[in-house]
Structures are given as C-alpha cells and as structure tokens.
Amino acid sequence: xxxxxxxxxxxxxxxxxxxxxxxxxxxxxxxxxxxxxxxxxxxxxxxxxxxxxxxxxxxxxxxxxxxxxxxxxxxxxxxxx
Length: 81
Prior knowledge:
Layout: H1 5-27, E1 31-36, E2 42-47, E3 55-60, H2 63-73
Antiparallel strand pairs: 1-2, 1-3
C-alpha cells in the first residue's frame, strides 16, 4: 500500500518548522540585568527580553559584568558597631 505523497510532504514540512522554531528559541541569547524589588533588594537575573520595568542596570552579556554593576549600583550598607 502506497502512502499519500501529500501526507509525506505535510509531515516533512511540519518537522522542518518544528526544528527551525526549536533552533531559534535555543539561539535566543541570555542577557543579565540588575533588578531592584519592592523591598529595595537588588539581584542579578537572566532574561531574554532585555530591560524590564524593574531594571536598574543592564543588560549585560555575562553574569560577572552584572555582578560588578550591582556592586556599584547597590552597595551593601556598612554594619554599625
């Protein structure tokens, strides 16, 4: 029994589209940003969107760059003796 060539072509096209979409989603470059929450605490987060409404520094290519910017933008308060 022969299979329908239109079915084969449809399956092949769907597989191709699936592979392209997966490849593009993995290729989305992660960026690192420094975010300040509502309590005033700063943290470094990874994102693929770039800047958000809570971003105070960034985006950066590496986490180390974001950590350095966090140290400058949100210095830790000195402890009182």
